[in-house]
Inverse folding.
C-alpha cells in the first residue's frame, strides 16, 4: 500500500488569522465565502486559506509600495510569481476533488471580478468626467480591446501607455 497524499489536511499556518487589508475587505470576504461554499471547505481549510490569502495580499501591497505603484516589469513579474506560489499553497490545503473545483472557481471569479470592476470604473468615469454617451461607448470598447490584448500578451507598462493614449483621444 502506498502512502496517501494528505497534504490537504495540513494545519493552519498561523493560529491568529490576520484580518484582510481594509480596502480589500468586501472583495476578500466575498471571495473567501464563495470559495467555502463552492469548494465545500472545512473550517480548518477556510482558516488556513484565509491566512494564505491575507499574507499574499500583504506581500502584494508591499511590492506596490516598493515600486511606488508603478507597473514596472519587475513588480508585475514578482506579483505573478507570488500569485503562483499562493495558488500552490491553497492547492496543498485542498482535497483532489476540491482542487479541480478550485480551477473553475478561480476562472469564474476572475471573470466576475473583471466585469464588476469595469462597471464600477465606467460609472465613476462617467460621473467624474461627465462623459457623453458616445464617449462612454468608445471608452467601453477601448477597455474591452485592452482586456483582449492583455490576455494575448503579458500586461506591460507599454500596454498601459497605449491604453492611456487611447483614452486621452476620446476625452
Amino acid at each position: 500500500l502506498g502512502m496517501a497524499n494528505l497534504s490537504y489536511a495540513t494545519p493552519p499556518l498561523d493560529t491568529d488569522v490576520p484580518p484582510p487589508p481594509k480596502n480589500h475587505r468586501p472583495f476578500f470576504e466575498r471571495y473567501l465565502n464563495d470559495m467555502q461554499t463552492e469548494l465545500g471547505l472545512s473550517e480548518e481549510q477556510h482558516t488556513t486559506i484565509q491566512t494564505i490569502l491575507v499574507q499574499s495580499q500583504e506581500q502584494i501591497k508591499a511590492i506596490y509600495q516598493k515600486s511606488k505603484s508603478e507597473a514596472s516589469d519587475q513588480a508585475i513579474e514578482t506579483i505573478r510569481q507570488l500569485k503562483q506560489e499562493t495558488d500552490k499553497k491553497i492547492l496543498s490545503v485542498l482535497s483532489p476533488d476540491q482542487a479541480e473545483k478550485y480551477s473553475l472557481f478561480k476562472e469564474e471569479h476572475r471573470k466576475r471580478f473583471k466585469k464588476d470592476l469595469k462597471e464600477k470604473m465606467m460609472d465613476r468615469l462617467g460621473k467624474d468626467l461627465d462623459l457623453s454617451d458616445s464617449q462612454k461607448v468608445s471608452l467601453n470598447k477601448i477597455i474591452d480591446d485592452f482586456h483582449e490584448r492583455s490576455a494575448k500578451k503579458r500586461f506591460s507598462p507599454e500596454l498601459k501607455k497605449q491604453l492611456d493614449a487611447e483614452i486621452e483621444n476620446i476625452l
About this structure: Confidence is low (pLDDT under 50) at residues 1-20. The chain has six helices and no strands. The two ends are 68 Å apart (CA to CA).
